[in-house]
Fold these 2 entries.
Entry 1:
Amino acid sequence: MTAGILLSSQTRGDWIELSAAGSWTAEYAGAIEPQVDAATRDITARSIAINIARVEYLDTYGAWLIERTIRSWKTQGREARLVGLREDYRGLFEKVHSGTQTLSPPEPRPNSIIATLESVGRTMAAVGTDLVQLAQMLGSLLVAVKRVALRPTTFRFTSMVHHLERVGWRAVPIVLLITVLIGAILAQQGIFHFRKFGADIYVIDMVGVLVLREVGVLIVCIMVAGRSGSSYTAELGAMRMREEIDALRTMGFDPVEVLILPRILALVIAVPVLTFLGSMAALYGGGLVSWLYGGIQPEVFLTRLREAVTSTTFEVGMIKAPFMALVIGLVACVEGLQVQGSAESLGEKTTNSVVKAIFLVIVLDGIFAMFFASIGM
Amino acid sequence: MAKESVIEVRDLVVDLKGNRVLNGVNLDVYRGEILGFVGASGAGKSVLTRTIVGLLPKQRGRIDVFGVNLDEAGEMQRQEIERRWGILFQQGALFSSLTVGENVEFPIKEYLDVSDRLMTEIAITKLEMVGLKPDVYRKYPSELSGGMIKRVALARALALDPEILFLDEPTSGLDPISAGDFDQLILTLQRVSSIAVFMVTHDLDSLHTICDRIAVLGDGKIIEAGTMDTMLASQHPWLKAYFHGVRARSGLKAAASN
């Protein structure tokens, strides 16, 4: 195959004939295009013809390039025609010729300041709708709880146990590992700095209070949001994409009752348990480092811990856990149900789910801090 | 004129999860024909298609495309062949994060060195050729109906002006009118650019109206290949059930009365 070329023009009477030869195919389209552009630009005759009798191969690309040239001549008010069209290419030319190529112009892009303001505005409005949607989800969840409470046999117990295993039991090893490390790091940092003041022993107070009140539950919630919240969103999103949720609805089931209630309930049970285990592991890690690195004997650690920490400290941490679990579950399910058709949307909603859940968990923690401070806990 | 094979499958054996799905398949697809490929559900039609295009490994046998043995083809040669075939997947398999236009332009951008202007024009031409309006160009696949998705997928399969077109159940999931339109579309496009079409289908109407030849897969082999008349004359029990069943008879009557 030889590359397609547009040969030099020949004057025939009062019109100019251009003859095309070679392969006018996709492969050579890149090389042919400048030639036809040049021809469109440079030829000034009133009447032009393109002779394609010597074209060996022709496909949509070649046909379109010829069609385009003829069209642009015609729009300049000149006479243009095609000669030497082989019978077997007639269909192709008719197809290409019948296309209108009328593409509506792209939406004008607003200037960057307005675009920025608009995006800020939309984001703020989205925060509002997010809160409304969370409240709606909480509402439908409570309705589902009420319905299930009136007819306990309809509760999806198996489903809840299944999710409990996934978000609770299988999360135990990683939660333990991470909280032991966090406890150990807290203790190490404490000892390193407190030692300058000869206050090593207060490291135990710090680790105890910090872990039980704040760090234990926060770390566990962040882990759960990343591990289970994201998987809830992805699952529900994929179900929505494949119309499984619509199918449930048409069969007379409430998706909230069937899919969301067992999932959120599983989280509300699992997170406090994980928080307890995580807090204990963090204390263990802190104790281990205090002993090995700080030289504080385990008996001393335990005695000091008993004085520093009251049951209130422990309760403060544990009370927060189910509420945070609820927030993580609600955010994950709301986002999951908003997934649109595309794979990109699934990814975006999963990211949103994790980011929003972690953000809200920390906001909730702040609100709890103020609440406990005002009631003196 | 001797028919030129664009695809030549010889003694192909494919195992899937320990099961022998294809056991000695011999098949030719000739230049410029529409080959309808039928077989019971689960007989391995998709497996054969996916093996030819290289998505599944084969245990034994030979596949030649454009006279090149795919096992011996180097990477460059293989890419050259892949450029010359287009595949329409059953669900369309459009990239959901790209617009319709970007979907059609995707293979052009990857394989050819053409200007952006020409690329857009070709994409619109292809979209118009498959019977869509140019304004779908900026839409996303999730905004389209099932029939439109198939058309866009066909436009993408045709983007590089392939010489072989693989169609996996092109009319499944379409209403009879759209399916008929789609058949005519394939026929027109095939006549326009004289490509070889390898069409897996269950649609008896498609087989009647547009297929030049039909190949039937059963028990891991091609049990019959030929024109519709060969199929109707065959004494193979499965073929008799397939082409003389209730649905087939009503389809034939309809075809005859036209």
Entry 2:
Amino acid sequence: MSQPQWADSLRSLYDSVVDEPIPDTFKDLLAQFDEPKKASSENGGSE
Amino acid sequence: MSSLPAPAADPVEFKRELTGVVPHLRAFARGLCGRPDMADDLVQETLMKAWAAQERFEPGTSMRAWTFVILRNAYLTDMRRNRFRGEYDENVAERILTAPAGQEEPIHLSDMHRALLTLPPERREALLLVGAGGFSYEEAANICGCAVGTIKSRVGRARAALNEMLADGDIPKRSIDDDTAHRAILEELDDVAAGNGLAEPTNGRT
């Protein structure tokens, strides 16, 4: 039984969000994680 | 104080992996709850919880699966607290559900999303995990904390429902606008959140 047409559409729906650029709020949040926890001597290493 | 929080994973590596799954978390959350703003809140919450719990992550295992569990639990908890219940806005939902995502999709993503959101939550998440996220039934069962057979059944029912809706072109356009229908969805979700839905693999309906 072949995949119904909507199966591709469902993946497209998911992938369309995956392909969106990550909003800055998330980058900022992730960047914050390092600071209080690890006063790491390494310089950030973000991205 | 008996145990030091010895991180199982190198924090730098952990963060790299965590960053890598953000797009997937956003996609899963968007599929689950339909509202981009609410979905992103959920992802933020997930990231904070994941970071706080990083010593429980086993390096080498799937970060995506691990964080999906966290996201799913956060979603159910939020729903149980009715955090979002009073905030449902028909107009916002309508705009979101019908807005083309940048470009016209040949296959009507908005119809797809609308149809997806009419599914009972436990079937929706099962279908999202397997049909969109590419998880195996086993992985999806682990994420949802249920038996593989239960996941298969949920996916099967979700597929049958979508086949019916989308093949006939009979997408219930009104049902998401409709407050009553939406409330019914939320009530069903409450059952899931309360554990009733999870313990109840059979629903008698096909």
